[in-house]
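Quick one:
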Amino acid sequence: MKALFVLVSALILSTSGFAADRTIELNSKKVIVGKLDQARGQAAQATLEVVRTSETPDLVELVFSFKQGDYVCTEYRTRTVYEPGYYRVVCNTDRYGRQYCRRIYTGGYYRTYEECVRNEYRLFDDARVLKLNFKKAANLGAGERETFSVNFAQRGIDSSRFNYTATSDNAAYDISFSTFLRKDTFFFKLK
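Output:
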Protein backbone atom coordinates (compact mmCIF):
# COMPACT_ATOMS: atom_id res chain seq x y z
CA MET A 1 0.00 0.00 0.00
CA LYS A 2 2.85 2.35 0.86
CA ALA A 3 4.57 1.56 -2.46
CA LEU A 4 1.32 2.27 -4.32
CA PHE A 5 1.00 5.63 -2.55
CA VAL A 6 4.59 6.56 -3.49
CA LEU A 7 3.99 5.53 -7.11
CA VAL A 8 0.74 7.53 -7.40
CA SER A 9 2.28 10.62 -5.79
CA ALA A 10 5.30 10.42 -8.12
CA LEU A 11 2.97 10.26 -11.13
CA ILE A 12 0.96 13.24 -9.92
CA LEU A 13 4.09 15.29 -9.30
CA SER A 14 5.55 14.41 -12.69
CA THR A 15 2.40 15.39 -14.61
CA SER A 16 1.69 18.58 -12.67
CA GLY A 17 3.50 21.79 -13.46
CA PHE A 18 5.34 22.03 -16.75
CA ALA A 19 6.46 19.25 -19.03
CA ALA A 20 9.83 20.85 -19.65
CA ASP A 21 12.83 19.53 -21.53
CA ARG A 22 15.24 21.30 -19.16
CA THR A 23 15.19 23.44 -16.04
CA ILE A 24 17.41 26.52 -16.05
CA GLU A 25 18.10 28.88 -13.16
CA LEU A 26 18.41 32.53 -14.18
CA ASN A 27 21.31 33.70 -12.01
CA SER A 28 23.27 35.80 -14.50
CA LYS A 29 22.64 38.34 -17.27
CA LYS A 30 23.53 35.86 -20.02
CA VAL A 31 22.49 32.22 -19.76
CA ILE A 32 23.84 29.75 -22.34
CA VAL A 33 21.05 27.25 -23.05
CA GLY A 34 22.95 25.23 -25.64
CA LYS A 35 21.37 23.24 -28.46
CA LEU A 36 17.61 22.93 -28.69
CA ASP A 37 16.10 19.51 -29.29
CA GLN A 38 15.87 18.95 -33.01
CA ALA A 39 15.14 15.73 -34.85
CA ARG A 40 17.01 15.12 -38.08
CA GLY A 41 15.48 17.18 -40.87
CA GLN A 42 12.90 18.73 -38.53
CA ALA A 43 12.48 22.20 -37.07
CA ALA A 44 13.72 22.79 -33.53
CA GLN A 45 11.13 22.58 -30.75
CA ALA A 46 11.78 22.73 -27.04
CA THR A 47 10.20 23.67 -23.74
CA LEU A 48 12.37 25.18 -21.03
CA GLU A 49 11.43 25.71 -17.44
CA VAL A 50 13.18 28.87 -16.22
CA VAL A 51 13.45 29.58 -12.52
CA ARG A 52 13.65 33.17 -11.29
CA THR A 53 15.21 33.76 -7.88
CA SER A 54 16.07 36.83 -5.84
CA GLU A 55 19.51 36.84 -7.52
CA THR A 56 18.05 37.03 -11.05
CA PRO A 57 18.91 40.31 -12.82
CA ASP A 58 16.17 42.48 -14.35
CA LEU A 59 17.17 41.58 -17.93
CA VAL A 60 18.29 38.04 -18.81
CA GLU A 61 19.46 36.84 -22.22
CA LEU A 62 18.88 33.20 -23.14
CA VAL A 63 21.38 32.18 -25.84
CA PHE A 64 20.41 29.03 -27.72
CA SER A 65 21.70 27.26 -30.81
CA PHE A 66 19.93 25.22 -33.46
CA LYS A 67 20.35 23.81 -36.97
CA GLN A 68 19.24 25.75 -40.03
CA GLY A 69 19.21 24.45 -43.60
CA ASP A 70 19.97 26.30 -46.79
CA TYR A 71 21.00 25.63 -50.39
CA VAL A 72 24.65 26.43 -51.06
CA CYS A 73 26.78 26.16 -54.15
CA THR A 74 29.12 23.18 -53.86
CA GLU A 75 30.70 23.23 -57.31
CA TYR A 76 31.79 26.16 -59.46
CA ARG A 77 32.91 26.36 -63.08
CA THR A 78 35.10 29.10 -64.53
CA ARG A 79 33.99 30.36 -67.92
CA THR A 80 35.81 32.63 -70.34
CA VAL A 81 33.68 34.77 -72.64
CA TYR A 82 34.83 37.02 -75.46
CA GLU A 83 33.27 40.48 -75.39
CA PRO A 84 33.49 41.90 -78.95
CA GLY A 85 34.86 45.35 -79.69
CA TYR A 86 32.77 48.36 -80.62
CA TYR A 87 33.01 51.84 -82.10
CA ARG A 88 32.25 54.96 -80.16
CA VAL A 89 32.00 58.56 -81.27
CA VAL A 90 34.08 61.18 -79.44
CA CYS A 91 33.47 64.88 -80.14
CA ASN A 92 35.73 67.80 -79.20
CA THR A 93 35.38 71.56 -79.59
CA ASP A 94 38.38 73.68 -80.52
CA ARG A 95 39.04 77.22 -79.30
CA TYR A 96 37.18 78.73 -82.25
CA GLY A 97 33.96 76.84 -81.40
CA ARG A 98 34.25 74.27 -84.18
CA GLN A 99 33.26 70.76 -83.31
CA TYR A 100 35.27 67.76 -84.47
CA CYS A 101 33.91 64.25 -84.13
CA ARG A 102 35.73 61.00 -84.76
CA ARG A 103 35.05 57.31 -84.39
CA ILE A 104 37.29 55.37 -82.03
CA TYR A 105 37.43 51.61 -82.00
CA THR A 106 37.59 49.90 -78.60
CA GLY A 107 38.97 46.40 -79.02
CA GLY A 108 37.36 43.27 -77.74
CA TYR A 109 38.52 41.44 -74.62
CA TYR A 110 38.15 38.15 -72.79
CA ARG A 111 36.25 38.13 -69.49
CA THR A 112 36.28 35.26 -66.97
CA TYR A 113 33.64 34.60 -64.36
CA GLU A 114 32.55 31.79 -62.08
CA GLU A 115 29.13 30.22 -62.24
CA CYS A 116 27.52 27.71 -59.92
CA VAL A 117 27.12 24.25 -61.38
CA ARG A 118 25.68 22.32 -58.41
CA ASN A 119 23.58 23.43 -55.42
CA GLU A 120 23.14 21.17 -52.40
CA TYR A 121 21.11 21.44 -49.24
CA ARG A 122 23.28 21.76 -46.13
CA LEU A 123 22.63 22.24 -42.41
CA PHE A 124 24.43 24.98 -40.50
CA ASP A 125 24.68 25.75 -36.80
CA ASP A 126 23.03 29.04 -35.89
CA ALA A 127 22.34 30.88 -32.63
CA ARG A 128 19.74 33.35 -31.39
CA VAL A 129 19.03 35.33 -28.25
CA LEU A 130 15.74 35.53 -26.35
CA LYS A 131 15.52 38.26 -23.73
CA LEU A 132 13.47 37.97 -20.55
CA ASN A 133 12.63 41.34 -19.00
CA PHE A 134 11.74 41.21 -15.29
CA LYS A 135 11.94 44.98 -14.59
CA LYS A 136 8.21 45.18 -13.76
CA ALA A 137 8.01 41.79 -12.04
CA ALA A 138 7.49 41.26 -8.32
CA ASN A 139 10.46 41.68 -6.00
CA LEU A 140 11.46 38.34 -4.52
CA GLY A 141 12.72 37.82 -1.03
CA ALA A 142 15.59 35.55 -0.07
CA GLY A 143 14.81 31.94 -0.91
CA GLU A 144 11.72 32.73 -2.99
CA ARG A 145 11.44 31.25 -6.49
CA GLU A 146 9.15 31.72 -9.47
CA THR A 147 8.86 29.25 -12.34
CA PHE A 148 8.03 30.06 -15.95
CA SER A 149 7.74 27.82 -19.00
CA VAL A 150 9.10 29.05 -22.33
CA ASN A 151 8.25 27.16 -25.54
CA PHE A 152 10.48 27.45 -28.60
CA ALA A 153 9.21 26.43 -32.06
CA GLN A 154 11.32 27.05 -35.15
CA ARG A 155 9.14 28.14 -38.08
CA GLY A 156 10.85 25.69 -40.43
CA ILE A 157 14.17 23.93 -40.88
CA ASP A 158 15.18 26.61 -43.40
CA SER A 159 14.22 29.51 -41.10
CA SER A 160 16.11 31.31 -38.36
CA ARG A 161 12.85 32.71 -36.94
CA PHE A 162 11.04 31.22 -33.96
CA ASN A 163 7.57 31.29 -32.45
CA TYR A 164 7.74 31.66 -28.68
CA THR A 165 5.16 31.25 -25.93
CA ALA A 166 5.62 31.77 -22.22
CA THR A 167 3.40 30.73 -19.33
CA SER A 168 3.65 31.18 -15.60
CA ASP A 169 2.72 28.93 -12.73
CA ASN A 170 1.64 32.14 -10.97
CA ALA A 171 -1.44 33.81 -12.48
CA ALA A 172 -0.36 37.24 -11.19
CA TYR A 173 1.67 38.05 -14.32
CA ASP A 174 0.87 39.63 -17.66
CA ILE A 175 3.37 38.17 -20.12
CA SER A 176 3.79 40.03 -23.40
CA PHE A 177 6.11 39.37 -26.34
CA SER A 178 7.80 41.94 -28.55
CA THR A 179 10.10 41.78 -31.54
CA PHE A 180 11.79 45.11 -32.06
CA LEU A 181 14.80 45.34 -34.37
CA ARG A 182 14.99 41.52 -34.44
CA LYS A 183 15.38 41.41 -30.65
CA ASP A 184 12.89 38.89 -29.26
CA THR A 185 11.83 39.91 -25.76
CA PHE A 186 9.33 38.66 -23.18
CA PHE A 187 8.08 41.26 -20.70
CA PHE A 188 6.87 39.97 -17.33
CA LYS A 189 4.62 42.50 -15.61
CA LEU A 190 2.90 42.12 -12.26
CA LYS A 191 -0.90 42.53 -12.58
